[in-house]
Design brief:
Shape of chain A: elongated
Number of helices of chain A: 14
Distance between the termini of chain A: 77 Å
Number of strands of chain A: 12
CATH class of the largest domain in chain A: Alpha Beta
Radius of gyration of chain A: 26 Å
Structural class of chain A: alpha/beta
CATH architecture of the largest domain in chain A: 3-Layer(aba) Sandwich
Number of domains of chain A: 3
CATH superfamily of the largest domain in chain A: Response regulator
Strand order of the largest sheet of chain A: 2-1-3-4-5-11
Helix content of chain A: 40-55%
Oligomer: homodimer
DNA sequence: GTGAAAGCGCTAACAA
DNA sequence: TTGTTAGCGCTTTCAC
């Protein structure tokens, strides 16, 4: 049972194919009566326009592609939510692809190219900058969470360096001096800026001698190893973790070692994921304005669609959300 | 700057378009040397096949669409992960659409139709059964988490009724008798089966007189209200919540009321989301085999692609994961 | 208001 | 092993 085409609808309505096309797209051309006939015929037949044919003829797709690199990270949900809300009535479809790992990431980008997406939003891409640039030349592209320098694309990052300093400053204000860092992965968009922010903040506060960096990765395993390493030499009174997962991993490991949070060790995480916000967890964390990032991405795409060609880059400022995992040093001892 | 077409590649390689098409798709036809020339030409030009044209000519898309209705639910990540892992080397693309709310859900389904997806996986769809059926007639379709009766589609559900009974039985075994239920939403695929499971289990255990149902929705607000309602009359010693979010909401509310878990009230959640597994949370919960569900969905799609036409339905059995939010009544008192 | 005709870039017979 | 020829279903001039 072939699916109905424009011609079928035209035949049934007794008009030409052109007219049906125009009418179904809401363009002028048909009389009110004819319009009704056409719409009726289309609905009788269960006509659904063929995107491939349409895109081919139009040479564009009215779709924008969003690439995620980790479905488990609640970060994305909010970003995509923000994006979606702004794009809702613009007539664009959003299609998401999951690119976990370099290979899949590339395959998703190829799909976007192949489908002639009009826009792309890449959240935390890990592919080479060259590849990002070449995507940017093919379609409006917004990169979130990675500072790429090409101006073929727009970039939204939050200031991890500043966020890290916020974390250290917060701990400092609570009286902590022996503040260690649990490092993230050294991939693009990974924990580098956060580590640098930690180091710079420590220096600025005159705490060079307390700088200690352990771990090196975003998993629970990395967190536990990092904690072990730190505790082996001297237990710090506070920890700044590269993200919430690491922070929670550290909490768990500390608790296995008989140490409490914040009683023995204060901890600050990063990303303010929903899990940090759980009252049972109560993790002090650095918040990135996720929904806002998504909305901004939508705006940037629309600007590009409207003709902007120069690169636009945005550094959003994170803020600290204080919860129960940090306390003053007095309380601590 | 037009993007290169098959003809451009052919011209550059000095061969016919057909040959390029065949070669680039890995089919026989060209000599080894010619093949090299062609591949080189394509790569020089940065040729990317046009999906629209290809799909139009092929009358199919090599893509399968996955619809999520709530990006925040970690359930999806695992299901999609399972799906992806099975489909990885099959040459199919996976494109996801987020359909939060009926309207968006429909728009996602239209997109799938319009793109002539070969397969669709709908996770927790809320649209009418008619609409699902009509999608099923157009492409291989797997519905996850909702029992639809049409046999135009395959269905995977987990046995919520049994899962709920598991929860109640667990609490019963711990000595609890006054076990209340925090209800979920009464939407398709919502909390209905869980509620019925609760009621049936209570009856079967001779606890009719203790049956109490409060709340009615999947948000923290619903949870808090439900707790208030229950506590106002008589505080139950145990709670079975429609999902983890509700369970956590209840925990928080109880704690605001000065009641501890499991000290004063034991709680069982549902879905075993990652947040339940956090050691700081330690929520006893009912686990659905998520990855397995995703893998099964992939298998079902492949069977359909291979020619199966009769409906296949699967009821997967959930299991209880015991953590720290439940304890024996003795301890409780 | 309405229709005819020419592609969009590709695949798939069919010839050569 | 290679090339020719028709479409796929739609949009878009351009003419009526």
């Amino acid at each position: 049972m072939r699916r109905p085409t424009l011609d079928d609808v035209a035949e049934r309505a007794g008009v030409s194919r052109t007219l049906v096309s125009l009418t179904l797209r809401g363009l002028a051309g048909a009389s009110e009566e004819t319009t009704r006939t056409i719409v009726q015929a289309a609905s009788d037949l269960g006509y659904v326009p063929d995107a491939a044919a349409r895109n081919l003829a139009r040479k564009s797709s009215q779709s924008i592609g969003v690439m995620l690199n980790d479905m488990h990270n609640p970060f994305f949900a909010d970003v995509v939510g923000g994006l979606q809300s702004r794009l809702l009535d613009s007539g664009y479809h959003i299609l998401m692809g999951v690119g976990e790992g370099l290979r899949l990431e590339r395959s998703v980008l190829d799909t976007f190219l192949s489908y002639r997406m009009e826009g792309a939003v890449l959240i935390g891409p890990e592919v080479r900058e060259r590849e990002i640039e070449s995507l940017g030349r093919a379609m409006a592209t917004v990169i979130i969470g990675r500072r790429v320098r090409t101006d073929a694309v727009d970039v939204i990052v939050s200031d991890d360096h500043k966020g890290a300093m916020l974390a250290v400053q917060h701990l400092f204000d609570l009286g902590h001096r022996d503040i260690a860092h649990l490092d993230g992965a050294s991939i693009p968009g990974g924990g580098n800026a956060r580590r640098r922010g930690y180091v710079d903040a420590m220096r600025r506060l005159g705490l060079e001698q307390h700088i200690r960096i352990a771990g090196g990765g975003f998993t629970l395993r990395h967190a536990a190893d990092g904690v072990d390493e730190l505790v082996r030499t001297q237990r710090p009174t506070a920890l700044f973790a590269a993200n919430d997962r690491v922070a929670l991993g550290a909490m768990e490991r500390l608790s296995e070692l008989g140490l409490s949070t914040p009683g023995d060790v204060s901890i600050v995480g990063y990303d303010n994921t929903s899990i940090a916000a759980q009252r049972r967890v109560g993790l002090t964390s650095i918040d990135q304005p996720r929904v806002e990032i998504g909305e901004l991405a939508a705006t940037l795409l629309q600007e590009r669609f409207a003709g902007r060609t120069d690169a636009s880059r945005h550094v959003l400022t994170p803020k600290l959300v204080e919860r129960d995992s940090t306390s003053t040093l007095e309380t601590t001892r």
